[in-house]
Structure formats: C-alpha cells, structure tokens
Amino acid sequence: MERLDNRDIRNQIFKLAIPAIMEMTLHTLVWTADTAMVGRLNPASISAVNLGSQIMFTMSNIFGALGIGATAMVSRQIGANNREEAENIAAQSIGIGFIISMIIGTLGILSAKSVFNLIVDDPEVIALGSSYLRIVFIGALFLIPQFIANSILRGAGNTVIPLVSAAFANAFNIIGDYVLIFGKFGFPELGVTGAAIATGTAQILGASITFFFLIRGKAGIKLHISKVFRLSKNITKSIVDLSVPATLETFMNEGSRLLSSFWIAQLGTISFAAHSLANAAESISYMPGYGFAVAATTMVGQSLGAKNLRRAEICTKKIILYSVWLMGLVALAFIIFPFAIMRLFSNDLDTVALASKCLRVGAVEQIPIAIGMTVSGALKGAGDTKGPFKISLITNLGVRLPLIFIIVFILKLNVVFVWWATGIQFIVEAVLMIIRYRRGRWKSIKI
Fold first, then answer.
1. pLDDT tens-digit profile of 74-100?
2. Between the CA atoms of 210, 211, 214 and 216, what dihedral angle is there, to the nearest 10 degrees?
3. CB 245 within 8 A of CB 380
4. Closest by CA position to 127, among listed 40, 193, 176, 183
5. C-alpha angle with apex 238: 234 to 241, nearest 5 degrees?
6. Which of 181, 297, 311, 313 has the CB geometry, 3.0–4.6 Å to 377, for a possible disulfide?
7. How far is the C-alpha of 139 from the C-alpha of 131, rounded, in Å?
8. Considering only CA atoms, which of 221, 231, 84, 222 is closest in space to residue 155?
9. pTM for this entry
C-alpha cells in the first residue's frame, strides 16, 4: 500500500510540475524571440523596448505575487473538499487583482513619460519608450488578474490551463511581433509601436483563455462573476495577510537584481555583457525549480487541508529530491560545457570566454536554488509566506548586496567574483529555508 501511495504522489508531482516547467520555458523563449526581433531595430528602439518591458513585467510580477495567498487558501479548501469556499476565495482574489491592476495600469499609462525621463536622457528613447509603455500597460490591466487566476488554478491542482494560455498568448506575441514590427502580410511597419501592440494584445488573449476555462468551471474550480466584487472582510484580510509578504519578497528580489545590475555595469562593457549573457543562459535552469515549487505549494496546501500532515512531509521530501536531481544535471552541463553553451548566445569570443567562467560558477548555485525554491514553495503552500520574505530580506540585504558592493567598488574585482557572491547568497538561502522548514511551525498555521 505504501508503494502505491508513493507512486501516486510521484505521479501527482510530475503532473503538476511538468506543465509549470513548460509554461515558464515558453515565457523565456518568447522573451528571447522578442529580444532577437527588436534587436534588428535601431539602438534607441532596443533600449526603449527593453526598459519598457522590464518596468511593466517587474510591476506585474510584484503585484501578481498576490496570487500566492490565493494559492495557499484555495489549495487548503480543495484539500478539505470545501469547493464552495474555495470558489468564494477565488472570486474575491480576482476582484482584488482587478482593482489593483486598474490602479497600476492607470498610473503606468499616465506616468510613462515621467518614468522614462527619470531613467534616461536620450529624447528618442524617452519618446519611443513612453509610447511603448502606455500601450503595454493597457494589456497589463488584464495581466495581474491573470497571474492571480493562474495561481488559483494551480491551487486547485490544474497547471495545464496556465500552460495552454501561455502557449496561445506567446505564439500570438511572436507572430504579432514579426508582422507588426517589420510590416509583413500587408500590415504597416510599426517598429516599437508594433512590438507594444503585439505584447499588449497577447496579454489580453492569454487572460481571456484563462478566464474562459475558469468561468466555464472546466478547470477544477469555477469562477462566479457575481461574487468577484462581493468582498468579505475576513477572506480579504486573509488574502492580504498571506500575499503582502510574498509581494514584498518579490519586490526585494527584483529590486536587488536591478541594483546589482547597475553596480555590475560599472565594471565595464564586456563584464556587463558577459554577466547579462550568463544570466540569460542560467535563467533557463530556473525552470525546473519553479515547476517543482509550484507542485510543492499545491500539494502541501491540499494535504494540510485534508489534515494529512504525513503526506505533506512526504511530498516535500520527494519534490526536493526530484528538483535537486534535475538541477544537479544542469550544474554538470554548466561545469563541462560552459563555453559551448555561451557560444550559442554570442559571437564575441572575449565576452563568451568571460561569460563561460561566470556560468561555471553558476553551477555551484543550482542545487541550493533547487532546495531554496522548493522549500519556499512548500512553506507558502502551508500559509507561511512571512518566512520566505524574511529569508529573502536577510540574504539580499545581508549577503548579496554588501558582497557585490565590496567586490565592485572596494576590491574592484572582475565579474566572476560577483557570481561567487550570488552563489554564497543562494547557499545561505537554502540553509535558512531548511532551518525554517524543520522548525515545523508551518504545520500548525491556520488559514
């Protein structure tokens, strides 16, 4: 019987993790395709699109983290077979998401030019970037609710619909970019404006697909439109209490990475280019960690909802094991073939050589990242969103930023040492996550 239970757990893990990994891979590939097509425009257009998309997606990711609370609460109710309460939580979470997206989207549209004036001095970049940002923020009105809707689906145990939504939206985005940027098939050549229209429309399309399945109730949970803005004080408070730490954690991580990039740019053009290329290559390796973290969040939440603590613990251990094995293989590839991997990203041999050294150091990060992401997912599934936020605060403010500042501005070492600093950060983060998990406070959290 135990063997059958283990097989059931393993199948459920991969049923949840594989679509989530594929979804994130699609997002990464479309970003690569976008970059390649925009890269054929002039430097001002490239800067405008890259800065504009970074601003929009950073804001959406930060506030989309509100979905973490929804995932924890929905998975708990699904595990307890309380579908009606899960659907009430889902409706109110999406209602909150629409309210926030309206505020963020409106502010983004109105302040686009002011934001670019603060970042750059080039009038052409400001004009193009402002126009791009205004258009994509129209799509962002739907992006935050979609992030939350996807989190609800994952909490209900469905990671396939977010994958389907991403597949259609990203395919449309790539085709739309090609057609509208370069003026193909009778369409006008719109350049940056075309890229913005393709991205914004793709966001609306993706949201429409997700909400179609939610409203029809064909995805394991049904969205009742009549309840979306019928907010309950208790449910809203629980969603906010769980989601705010996750939002702050995302803000901390995004802000830390952005500040680090500004500092690393001081090391020179080749160093920054090498760092950027190695970062792009390593970002693909995060996909398994993300997918298994999603599985951990859902399965721990549902197990606790069913009052099956032992299943929650077994799921967490197995998910950590699978994540470590998979990302361990990635680490081996980074150690053995760093130059060949980086050669795929650039033809400049000096940049490739330096990026290869960074990527080899990145191999050290893989297993700690696997552990840290998976345990963080398990804690969040149990409703412990404060723990990962506190750990992120400690590792970013106490490890990553001080070490990088010392390396860049005091010791004036090369960019490879920056990668050693981030490696230390991920090791510390993994250790702290394990300590938090083993203390066991997550086992008794009430949602």
1. 999 999 999 999 999 999 999 999 998
2. -120
3. no
4. 193
5. 135
6. 297
7. 13
8. 221
9. 0.88
